[in-house]
Design brief:
By secondary structure, the protein is an alpha+beta fold. It is 17% helix and 19% strand. The chain has a domain of 67 residues. The longest helix has 18 residues. About 8% of the residues have low confidence. One of its GO terms (cellular component) is plastid.
């Protein structure tokens, strides 16, 4: 492995030297000057995409490809061949803050009567729930980000924040159920790092990632996440990895703001509702590849069975002699069309808050 990797990377180094016109790796190549302590470092600096692919396939340890968001694996087993994961070098390696966790009981997709209400659920690794503060109601209290952590219950990372507890601040902290022992978890936005200071609804606070404000106090055009739909209820919109919304404009007469969601939908939200600044972190989450079926089972996801492989009592496509094609347009187990059928209620209560639907936004964009 070591000798083959050396030959492969030396070939890459010679190719880079030829491409640079005979200049040695590590020599200045235009502004700004680049310094390299080794051919590997020079290769990674000059041609990161080539180096990433080469390192992933020729036996170079994955740890040498630092600087890339994704981690590739050598095909030592069939499950490793196509496996791609997100790097977690910047995340906390230890256990979570115990006071901010609680046990999670698995239901296996069953309700209180024992019937399956959520299909393809069951098994998986045991987890503990992280109590994430999506309300951000500690107004004016500044906190310091201690570390970033992995959360098995969501796609985004979370940040552990430590608050000061001086004077009247301590009483506000003690009344917040999501703050325990002066610590709280928040969603980690893109760009947040340990040592940064965050504040909620602070006077003269900067509009920087991690800070939270009421929508009426946020400048128009700023990217936001963790948006409330009702004041005090806690953030409900834009909380998964890599997503962001944009504050489009404020309506002065009725106190509403128009927010463009990741789907393209534009929605009216009260200006008194809270929102956090920035895009949610872990933006490369959607690029990962599990590599094998067992990785889905670790996450509590069971296999999906085709309708044509079932019996008639279980699915409209079921039954027939031998292999059949279903005999009807694709439908759900309850007989609804699966392709193109709108399942939203015709007269839903929240329709009055939709300024521009995602379907209209898509048609408007394609013109």
């Amino acid at each position: 492995r070591g000798r083959g990797a050396e030959r492969s990377m030396s070939f890459l180094s010679r190719a880079l030297v030829r491409a640079l016109g005979g200049r040695a790796l590590g020599a200045p190549v235009g502004p700004p000057a680049m310094e390299a302590s080794s051919p590997l470092q020079a290769a990674a600096t000059l041609c990161p995409r080539i180096f990433e692919t080469r390192a992933a396939t020729c036996g170079v340890p994955v740890q040498q490809t630092r600087g890339f968001a994704m981690k590739f694996y050598n095909p030592t087993t069939p499950g490793q061949r196509h496996k791609v994961t997100v790097r977690r070098d910047h995340l906390w390696k230890g256990k979570p803050f115990r006071a901010l966790t609680k046990g999670k009981r698995s239901t296996g997709g069953r309700n209180n009567t024992g019937r399956i209400t959520a299909f393809h659920r069951g098994g998986g690794h045991k987890r503990r729930l992280r109590l994430v503060d999506v309300h951000r109601t500690l107004y004016g209290v500044e906190g310091v980000v201690k570390r970033l952590e992995y959360d098995p219950n969501r796609s985004a990372d979370i940040a552990l924040v430590e608050y000061d507890s001086s004077g009247e601040v301590s009483s506000a902290i003690s009344s917040n159920s999501y703050v325990r022992k002066r610590h709280a978890y928040i969603l980690a936005p893109e760009g947040l790092k340990p040592g940064d200071r965050v504040i909620s609804n602070g006077k003269d606070a900067p509009v920087s990632p991690g800070n939270a404000f009421k929508l009426r106090d946020i400048p128009v055009g700023v990217e936001i996440h963790n948006i409330e739909l009702r004041p005090g209820k806690g953030g409900q919109l834009v909380r998964s990895a890599g997503v962001t919304a944009t504050l489009m404009r404020r309506e002065a007469e009725d106190g509403f703001c128009i927010v463009r969601l990741p789907s393209g939908e534009q929605r009216y939200v009260l200006g008194e509702c809270m929102a956090s600044i920035g895009a949610v972190g872990n933006k490369d989450h959607h690029n990962r590849k599990l590599g094998k079926a067992g990785a889905s089972r670790w996450r509590g996801r069971r296999p999906v069975v085709r309708g044509v492989a079932m019996n008639p009592v279980d699915h409209p496509h079921g039954g027939g002699e031998g292999k059949s094609s279903g005999g009807r347009p694709s439908s759900t187990p309850w007989g609804k069309p699966t392709k193109g059928y709108k399942t939203r209620k015709k007269k839903k209560e929240s329709d009055k808050f939709v300024h521009l639907s995602r379907h209209d936004a898509k048609r408007k964009k394609s013109r």
